TrEMBL record:
GO terms for molecular function: ATP binding; magnesium ion binding; tetrahydrofolylpolyglutamate synthase activity. Gene3D superfamilies: Mur ligase, C-terminal domain (3.90.190.20), Mur-like, catalytic domain (3.40.1190.10), MurE/MurF, N-terminal domain (3.40.1390.10). Residues 354-478 form the Mur ligase C-terminal domain. Pathway: Cell wall biogenesis; peptidoglycan biosynthesis. Its EC number is 6.3.2.-. This is UDP-N-acetylmuramyl-tripeptide synthetase. It comes from Trueperella bialowiezensis. Belongs to the MurCDEF family. MurE subfamily. SUPFAM superfamilies: MurD-like peptide ligases, catalytic domain (SSF53623), MurD-like peptide ligases, peptide-binding domain (SSF53244), MurE/MurF N-terminal domain (SSF63418). Catalyzes the addition of an amino acid to the nucleotide precursor UDP-N-acetylmuramoyl-L-alanyl-D-glutamate (UMAG) in the biosynthesis of bacterial cell-wall peptidoglycan. The lineage of its organism: Bacteria, Bacillati, Actinomycetota, Actinomycetes, Actinomycetales. It is an enzyme of class 6 (ligase). InterPro entries: Folylpolyglutamate_synth_CS, Mur-like_cat_sf, Mur_ligase_C, Mur_ligase_C_dom_sf, Mur_ligase_cen, Mur_ligase_N, MurE/MurF_N, UDP-N-AcMur-Glu-dNH2Pim_ligase.
């Protein structure tokens, strides 16, 4: 069970106030009586005395099945649906019945913890690729400005100075509200959060309204969950309606971004600004881009003025991420000149685990999370010209996920690289050999490739065969340290393995 956090000082709140927040009619509030509550949990194993237990239907069983255990552990009330209420039957605590317990969990938790999001300036970032990098960049800027921040996302969860395990890009609703309350309790001023399409579809951020929301891009991914690109787009677009954000910044360099901005310009005039780094007509633009060694310098110009700055992260996509981050902070009311002064000569250059992370120089070895075609394309383009030699790519594809992208990943490598090593990613419950076969179907005739199933061996093989002037890109897993093989967790960290392979190469003199 993951370690989560709660505020140390959680006052007693009348259950009737929670019921009102949930929109229950007055006559149904009578069941609350004088009950007072101090926490919320959707996991009966984490119930503390005074909690509200959220009982919703899961993939296999309704959580109301565990209501008795939750009550025995100290739960003072249960929020569930009609099915759950029937399962529970007579109970020793109030049972509040709502239409959708999953979506009600955040509302209940916000009511218990004093609506902590309203006491923070909240930034939300969504898109297929770039969420993590942009979130880290916003956080970097805010901390340079002297703010006390919380960062929640795929790679890290940090509440002030407290680091927590990250198990979901966007936490479950009750856990999220507890994190925000803890941040407020510790003097937090700002929240920076990745908002996944899954979270938006499931209402995990409810009832939050972000001060500024940002959109990076939308490409072919997660169709195993959403079904179609249209449904995927609709889930992302939810973040930008008037219920979920005050201001919006939209990168319009792909069709989805332009469509989203056009919709907002019509439906919410003045609520959104656009950004382009490719020369399209937009409110904000990036100009005068130039590389100085590993540093990318650029000028950002728009309604808030202009700023000359830089990023030390490779790739045009990281210039876009940096520009988006700067504008989002600017849209929160911080002048562009003040942002520029805080950034200084370093620019927007946070260390982001597993995102174009350089782990070696000879060969130039990079570990990146790129796990779809668009991200892989951009990572390889970013590495062109870094070294004069070949580009060798190690990648695979995850099981029980969007199968259409498997051959597309291999085809992308063939467009940009010199050699591909097909290996395993997270097979989950699928046959790893079948996943690799589907990846291999995308390799065109005549392209150089090999298949090495064991990921560690594949990484060692790539670094062993590379020349000093070559580039090795290890793609797909980035910061991740656990590989799911048929339900068994296998510890594996691409960065650790790559460093070991580089050390052996040095010893062997290859």
């Amino acid at each position: 069970m993951e370690f989560l956090v709660r505020p140390k000082n959680s006052p007693q709140v009348a259950l009737s106030d929670v019921g009102r927040a949930l929109g229950l009619p007055v006559q149904e509030l009578n069941v609350c009586g004088a009950t007072a509550v101090s926490g919320v949990s959707a996991d009966n194993r984490r119930i503390r005395p005074g909690d509200v237990f959220i009982a919703r239907r899961g993939a296999k069983v309704h959580a109301a099945t565990f209501a008795r255990e939750a009550i025995a552990a100290g739960a003072r009330a249960v929020v569930t649906d009609a099915e759950g209420a029937h399962i529970i039957g007579d109970a020793d605590v109030p049972v509040l019945v709502v239409g959708d317990p999953a979506r009600s969990a955040g509302v209940a938790a916000a009511a218990v913890y004093g609506n902590p999001a309203a006491q923070l300036t909240a930034f939300g970032v969504t898109g297929t690729n770039g969420k993590t990098s942009t979130a880290f960049m916003i956080d970097h800027i805010l901390r340079k400005l002297g703010r006390t921040t919380g960062l929640i996302g795929t790679v890290a969860v940090r509440i002030g100075d407290l680091e927590l395990a990250s198990t979901l890009t966007t936490p479950q609703p009750a856990d999220l509200q507890a994190m925000l309350a803890t941040l407020v309790e510790n003097g937090g001023t700002d929240l920076v959060m990745e908002v996944s399409s899954h979270a938006l579809a499931q209402g995990r951020t409810e009832p939050m309204r972000f001060d500024v929301a940002g959109f990076t891009n939308l490409t072919h991914d997660h169709l195993d969950y959403h079904g179609t690109l249209e449904e995927y787009f609709a889930a992302k677009a939810t973040l930008f309606d008037s219920d979920h954000c005050e201001r919006a910044v939209v990168l319009v360099d792909d069709d989805a971004g332009q469509r989203l901005y056009d919709t907002l310009a019509t439906e919410r005039p003045g609520a959104a600004v656009s950004l382009s780094v490719t020369g399209l007509d937009a409110d904000w633009s990036v100009t005068e881009l130039r590389a100085e060694g590993a540093v990318q310098r650029f000028t950002l110009a728009g309604p808030g003025g202009s700023l000359e700055t830089c990023t030390q992260l490779a790739g045009m996509f990281n210039v876009a991420n940096a520009a988006l981050a700067i504008i989002m902070v600017c849209e929160a009311g911080i002048p562009l000149a003040q942002i520029g002064q805080a950034l200084g000569q370093e620019g927007v250059s946070p260390v982001i685990p597993g995102r174009m992370e350089v782990v070696g120089d000879k060969p130039y070895t990079v570990v990146d999370f790129a796990h779809n075609t668009d991200a892989l394309d951009k990572a390889m383009v970013a590495l062109h010209g870094v070294r004069p030699g070949k580009l060798i790519v190690v990648t695979g594809s995850a099981g029980e996920r969007d199968r259409e992208k498997r051959p597309q990943m291999a085809a992308a490598v063939a467009r940009h690289a010199d050699h591909l090593i097909v290996t395993d990613d997270d097979p989950h419950g699928e046959d790893p050999a079948q996943i690799r076969r589907e990846v291999i179907t995308g390799i065109p005739d005549g392209f150089s490739w090999e298949e090495i199933p064991d990921r560690a061996e594949a990484i060692h093989g790539a670094i062993r065969q590379a020349g000093d002037d070559d580039v090795v890109l290890i793609a797909g897993r980035g910061h991740e340290t656990i590989q799911d093989v048929a339900g068994v967790d296998v510890e594996i960290d691409d960065r650790v393995i790559a460093r070991d392979a580089l050390a052996r190469r040095k010893v062997d003199g290859t």
